[in-house]
C-alpha cells in the first residue's frame, strides 16, 4: 500500500477510474516533507460525470427503499472496518495523524455509517418523508394540506476540507445516499489519498448501484460550471471558499441549496464556581488540552478561546501549561507521541501568520520551544492571553494547536465574549451549578450550533467538546457558515424538497401512508 514512489491517484467518474492528463499536485507526508502521492483532475470531463450520476445513479438509488439504502450504508461500514489498519497507515502518512487522530477520522466515519444504517432502516419501505399529519384547510373537511419531503432530483456535490478525509466523505455520503441522492465527492487535494482508497474498496465490493458514488481526486476545475437545478452542494472548508461557492454564477442562477461548514472560533467557558482545585476546573483543563492537541488542533470544532473568571486566569494558564508539557510532540508513528505535525508547511506558515496577527493583542503565556524536525510541518502548542479587548482573537481562526485565554468579570461578560465569535460551531460550559449551565445553554444557543454542558456527573462519560456525533446537529450560525448537517434523520431534509400538498383528504391520507416521519426515528 505505501510505495516509495508517489502513487498516482485516480478519480472514479462515470463508473470508471480515470487519471488526469498532467502530473498534478503533490500530496505530502507532513512528518518528513516527502511526496507520497499525486492528484490531477486536468482533462476530466466533469459535465459528463455529473450527468452520469443524475441519469444512471439517481434512478438506481430511487428504485430501492430507504431501508435498502440503509443496508448499503451498513455494508460500506463493514468493508471499511475490515481494512482499518490500512486507513490508519495512510492517515499517518498523508495527514500526520497519530493513531488516536486517525481513529477520530476513520472510526468516526464507520460509526456514522453504522448509525445511519440503523436509524435509516426504520424508514423501511417509505417512498418519501412527511412532517405532521394532514390538516383541514377550509370549511369543507375534505380539503386538506400535508407537508411532504420528496428527494431532490439532482446530485449531492460534497466538497470537503483536508482535515477529515474519511469522516468528511462518509458523514455527508451516508445521509445523501439514504435520501436516494447520488453523491459526487471532492475531497481536499492535500489529503485525498485516504478518500480515494476507501472509495476504491467500496467500489470493488460492488455494494452500490452504478453511478451512486463518484469521486474527484484533484482540484475542482470547472465542476461548478455544470451544476443545475436539483443538485445540492454541501461544503466544508474555509469561509473564503464557502463564499466563492455561494457566489458562483451557476450556483446562483440555478438557485442551488448550499450548506456551508466554515471556520469557527469555538469557546470553552469555565463557570464562576470552577475554582482551581475543583473537579470542574480539572475537567475544563483536560478538555482544553485534548482539543488543542488532537489532530494538532486542526479540527473545525477545536477550542480556540478559553473564557475564564479573571480570578482564575493565572491558575488556568499554569495548569494548562503543566498539562501541555506532558503531551509528546513528534513522529505520529512513534509510541507515546500525543501530537503530530500539521498537514503541510503551508498550514504551518498559516499558523505562524495567525500568531503574528494576534501578537499586538495577546501575550504568549506558554510555548513549547522544541519541535522534532525542521523538515516536518511541526508546530509546538501555544497558549496566548488576550490583553484589552483583543478583537482579532474573536475574528481570526488559527487552525493549529493554539488557543487564547480570555478573562471575564461576570456572567454577562462571559456570554458576550463567547458571542464575539460571530456564530460558532460549538461552545462548552464547565460548572457544577445546574442553574448556570441551563442559563448558558439558553443564552448561547442563539449563537452556537451545539452547546456542551459539563458537570462532574458526566465528566467521564461525555464525548468531548470537539467530537461531532451523527445523532446531533453539526453546524453553526454566522461565520461558522450557517449550515446544518447530521442531527439524526433531520439531516435528510437537506436532500428533500419540503412541499405543501393540498387536496382531497383520501388522496392525502394515501400519500401520508407512503411516507415516513423522520422525526419519529431520530
Ligand atoms: P479550503 O481551502 O476552503 O478547501 C476546502 C475544499 O474546497 C477543498 O476540497 C478545496 O479543494 C475546495 N475548493 C477550493 N477552492 C474551490 C473552488 N473555487 N471551487 C470549489 N471547490 C474549491 O479549506 P481547507 O484548507 O481544506 O480546510 C480548512 C478550513 O476548513 C478551516 O478554516 C476549518 O475551520 C474549516 N473546516 C470547517 C469544518 C466544519 O465542519 N465547519 C470542518 C473542517 C474544516 P482543493 O483542496 O483541491 O483546493
Task: Provide the fold topology.
Elements: E1 7-8, E2 11-13, E3 16-18, E4 25-28, E5 35-39, H1 46-62, H2 66-81, H3 84-95, H4 99-121, E6 128-136, E7 143-151, E8 156-159, H5 167-179, E9 183-186, H6 192-204, E10 213-215, E11 232-236, H7 239-246, H8 249-253, E12 257-261, E13 266-270, H9 279-293, E14 303-309, H10 313-325, H11 345-358, E15 362-367, E16 382-386, E17 402-408, H12 411-419, E18 424-430, H13 434-444, E19 448-454, E20 473-474, E21 485-486, E22 496-504, H14 505-513, E23 515-516
Parallel strand pairs: 1-5, 6-23, 8-9, 8-11, 9-10, 11-12, 13-14, 13-18, 14-17, 16-17, 18-19
Antiparallel strand pairs: 2-3, 4-5, 6-7, 7-22, 15-16, 20-21
Helix pairs in contact: 2-4, 2-5, 3-4, 3-6, 4-5, 9-10
Bound molecules: NADP nicotinamide-adenine-dinucleotide phosphate.
Amino acid at each position: 500500500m505505501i510505495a516509495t514512489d508517489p502513487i498516482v491517484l485516480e478519480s472514479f467518474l462515470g463508473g470508471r477510474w480515470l487519471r488526469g492528463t498532467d502530473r498534478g499536485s503533490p500530496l505530502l507526508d507532513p512528518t518528513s516533507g516527502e511526496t507520497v502521492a499525486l492528484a490531477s483532475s486536468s482533462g476530466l470531463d466533469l459535465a459528463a460525470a455529473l450527468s452520469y450520476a443524475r441519469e444512471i445513479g439517481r434512478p438506481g438509488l430511487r428504485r430501492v427503499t430507504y431501508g435498502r439504502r440503509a443496508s448499503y450504508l451498513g455494508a460500506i461500514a463493514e468493508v471499511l472496518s475490515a481494512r482499518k489498519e490500512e486507513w490508519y497507515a495512510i492517515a499517518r502518512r498523508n495527514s500526520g495523524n497519530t493513531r488516536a487522530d486517525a481513529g477520530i477520522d476513520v472510526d468516526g466515519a464507520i460509526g456514522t455509517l453504522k448509525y445511519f444504517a440503523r436509524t435509516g432502516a426504520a424508514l423501511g419501505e417509505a417512498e418519501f418523508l412527511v412532517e405532521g399529519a394532514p390538516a383541514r384547510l377550509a370549511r369543507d373537511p375534505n380539503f386538506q394540506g400535508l407537508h411532504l419531503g420528496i428527494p431532490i432530483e439532482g446530485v449531492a456535490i460534497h466538497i470537503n476540507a483536508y482535515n477529515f478525509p474519511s469522516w468528511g466523505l462518509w458523514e455527508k455520503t451516508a445521509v445523501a445516499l439514504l435520501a436516494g441522492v447520488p453523491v459526487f465527492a471532492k475531497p481536499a487535494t492535500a489529503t485525498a489519498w485516504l478518500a480515494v482508497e476507501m472509495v476504491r474498496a467500496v467500489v470493488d465490493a460492488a455494494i452500490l448501484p452504478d453511478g451512486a458514488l463518484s469521486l474527484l481526486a484533484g482540484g475542482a476545475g470547472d465542476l461548478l460550471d455544470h451544476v443545475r437545478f436539483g443538485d445540492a452542494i454541501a461544503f466544508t472548508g474555509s469561509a473564503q471558499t464557502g463564499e466563492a461557492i455561494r457566489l458562483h454564477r451557476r450556483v446562483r442562477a440555478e438557485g442551488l441549496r448550499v450548506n456551508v461548514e466554515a471556520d469557527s472560533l469555538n469557546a470553552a467557558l469555565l463557570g464562576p464556581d470552577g475554582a482551581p482545585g475543583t473537579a470542574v476546573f480539572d475537567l475544563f483543563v483536560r478538555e482544553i488540552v485534548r482539543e488543542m492537541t488532537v489532530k494538532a488542533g486542526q479540527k473545525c470544532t477545536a477550542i480556540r478561546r478559553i473564557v475564564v473568571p479573571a480570578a482564575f486566569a493565572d491558575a488556568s494558564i499554569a495548569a494548562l501549561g503543566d498539562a501541555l508539557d506532558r503531551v509528546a510532540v513528534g513522529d505520529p508513528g512513534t509510541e507515546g507521541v500525543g501530537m503530530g505535525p500539521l498537514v503541510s508547511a503551508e498550514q504551518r506558515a498559516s499558523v505562524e501568520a495567525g500568531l503574528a496577527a494576534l501578537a499586538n493583542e495577546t501575550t504568549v503565556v506558554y510555548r513549547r520551544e522544541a519541535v522534532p524536525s525542521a523538515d516536518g510541518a511541526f508546530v509546538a502548542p501555544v497558549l496566548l492571553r488576550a490583553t484589552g479587548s483583543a478583537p482579532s482573537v474573536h475574528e481570526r481562526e488559527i487552525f493549529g494547536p493554539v488557543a487564547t485565554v480570555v478573562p471575564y468579570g461576570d456572567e454577562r461578560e462571559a456570554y458576550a465574549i463567547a458571542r464575539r465569535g460571530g456564530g460558532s460551531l460549538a461552545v462548552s460550559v464547565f460548572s457544577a451549578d445546574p442553574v448556570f449551565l441551563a442559563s448558558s445553554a439558553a443564552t448561547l444557543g442563539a449563537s452556537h450550533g451545539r452547546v456542551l454542558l459539563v458537570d462532574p456527573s458526566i465528566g467521564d462519560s461525555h464525548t468531548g467538546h470537539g467530537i461531532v456525533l451523527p445523532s446531533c446537529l453539526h453546524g453553526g450560525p454566522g461565520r461558522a457558515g450557517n449550515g446544518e448537517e447530521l442531527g439524526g434523520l433531520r439531516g435528510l431534509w437537506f436532500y428533500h424538497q419540503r412541499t405543501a400538498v393540498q387536496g382531497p383528504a383520501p388522496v392525502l391520507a394515501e400519500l401520508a401512508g407512503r411516507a415516513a416521519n423522520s422525526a419519529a426515528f431520530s
